[in-house]
Amino acid sequence: MAETEEKQSAGNIVMVTEGGAIPNPHEFHLINAWSISLTLALTSLFALCIIWPEPYLRILFYLPDGIVVTFQITLLSICFAVPIGFITGIGRISQNRCIKLIASTYVEIIRGIPLLVQLFYIYYALSRFFQVSGIASAVTAISICYGAYMGEVFRAGIAAIPRGQTEASRSLGFNRFQTMAYVILPQAMRTILPPVGNECIAMLKDTALVSIMAVPDIMQRARSFVGTTYLYFETYTVIALVYLVITLLLSKAVSIMEAKLNYYDRKSR
Amino acid sequence: MMKGFFAKIAIALIAVFCFQINASAAEKYVVASDCTWPPFELLDAKKQPTGYSIDFLRAVAKEAGFTVDNRNVAWDGIFGGVATGKYDIVASSTTITPERQKQFDFSDPYFEIVQAVILPTGKTIKSLAELKGLRVGGQIATTGIFVVRDANVGAQLKEYDDVGLAIQDLIGGRLDAVVCDDPVAKYYANKKKDSMGKIHIALQTQDKEYFGFTVKKGRRDLVEKLNKSIKLVREKGIEAALIKKWMGE
């Protein structure tokens, strides 16, 4: 009894991030928090559009190009943030003191500055030296910011692999690179990918900030719709529901991925 | 003893409450302005709202015998705030448009403007149609944006939170043109140190727009009060003095 308790507490990692709550992949009940939220969001969205097509349907039809921009920024940012995070994570556990310091300093600095300030800084403050488009600055700022967050996830994931794995691998004749590439990383990926997915969802939500740089994402489409119609309640209700549906679907995708990665864990349970 | 104590507190509370009722009878209106629209609304060195609209409303308030409590409010929430009663009056260069009149009540016009297209110095256009394909900036949900959108000339519209940021992007080269009210354009082109000389007004539209003080739909009492005093401010020559003060020559 005491032994199992110890085992359980050893494996517990408290992770609170701002991403969507990832549904438990082993939860097979039809009614759970995720399905209730999604059903509520979708039914209220459809109900509003059917009962009052004016203005709700009009608002919904005003959004698609904004959704495209939001996804564009999110996907591009993921493409850059994940490699940045990976390099940072590796750097943080590097044996080379210099690399370790650089990576740690980067994480410290970036994590201490609000994303909104970083966006303003890259778009408006640095425009004195070079000019980049709104979307390019958005992607840069979000990638740099989330690269630092993800660096921590990668570091924690790699550090969680027992030291014995490295020792065994090294004694079998693998060099440090081979150990990392063939032994540590494939195992670490299983723990790393779900929180990375979670960070990506948080990233999608944070793209709402880019509307301050005149980038026409979902949020800005909403604001400019409100600006002509003054329908604050209706517009922001639709926007909230649209964001909710998108993040719920994505968190389900992350959850499915998590289940696939932990295939053997489930078998052994 | 305790009873007496509570009674005293109750009396004190009632007194305060009555005083508040009296205070509201002396009429203090909360006035919202988005202070990013010089020379109509801006912040002074002490971060207090100032500018033509604000001075004008203060003069109106003096005539009408109410006091004002000025607040600096972001533009794209300003109409929502007046609709829900967070503030009584919006003094923020709001053009009276039919769409806005459906949702809000307006005072009589207190200023007349046209829209101005600002270009970098050296570039010219002859009509809005020449904005086709260009990156045109403006402040989100302002009539400048509406004019370009309604002209439907195929310009690439970029909506900023603040016209000053759009001007900065125009100078930096990330925009080809900025559209805003002509006095604001003149302020940035002729008065503001960072932008003076780098940009100029290339085009002014023909359609005149009129600014009105915005109040919640149905506040006819307030509208009448404002209208009566706007007339007085005009007759007493205060308006002319304010124009001279804020627009210069």
Through-space gap between termini of chain A:
17 Å
- Topology order of chain A in helix (H) and strand (E) letters: HHHHHHHHHHHH
What's the gyration radius of chain B in Å?
21 Å
The CATH class designation of the largest domain in chain B is Alpha Beta
Give the number of helices of chain B. 9
Mind telling me the CATH superfamily name of the largest domain in chain B? Periplasmic binding protein-like II
Question: What's the pLDDT, averaged over the residues of chain A?
Answer: 87
> Structural class, from secondary structure content of chain A?
mainly alpha
Fraction of residues in H or I helices of chain A: over 70%
What summary fits the major beta sheet of chain B?
5 strands, mixed
> Compute the gyration radius of chain A: what is it?
22 Å
- Residue share in β-strands of chain A: under 5%
- Low-confidence spans of chain A: pLDDT under 50, at least 5 residues? 1-12
**Strand elements of chain B, count:** 14
Q: What share of residues are in beta strands of chain B?
A: 15-25%
Total helical elements of chain A: 12
User: What gross morphology of chain A would you assign?
Assistant: flat
Task: Please state the second-level CATH architecture of the largest domain in chain B.
Answer: 3-Layer(aba) Sandwich
> How would you sum up the major sheet of chain A?
none
Q: Report strand order across the widest sheet of chain B.
A: 4-1-5-14-6
Quickly describe the structure.
The complex is a heterodimer of chains A (269) and B (249). Chain A is an all-alpha fold and 269 residues long.
Structural features, described:
The complex is a heterodimer of chains A (about 270) and B (about 250). Chain A is mainly alpha-helical. Chain A has helices spanning about 1-10, 35-50, 55-60, 65-90, 95-110, 115-125, 135-160, 165-170, 175-205, 220-230, 230-260, 265-269. The longest helix of chain A is centred in the C-terminal third of the chain and has 31 residues, at about 175-205. Chain B has 2 domains: about 25-110 and about 210-245, Periplasmic binding protein-like II (D-Maltodextrin-Binding Protein, domain 2); about 115-205, Periplasmic binding protein-like II (D-Maltodextrin-Binding Protein, domain 2, 3-Layer(aba) Sandwich), CATH 3.40.190. Chain B has helices at about 1-25, 50-65, 75-85, 100-105, 145-150, 165-170, 180-190, 220-235, 240-245, and strands at about 30-35, 40-45, 50, 65-70, 90, 105, 110-115, 115-120, 135-140, 155-160, 175-180, 200-205, 210, 215. In chain B, the strands form 4 sheets. A 5-stranded mixed beta sheet of chain B has the order 4-1-5-14-6, sandwiched between helices. In chain B, helix 2 (about 50-65) crosses helix 8 and helix 2 runs antiparallel to helix 9 (about 240-245). The termini of chain B are far apart. The chains are: A mainly alpha (about 270), B alpha/beta (about 250).
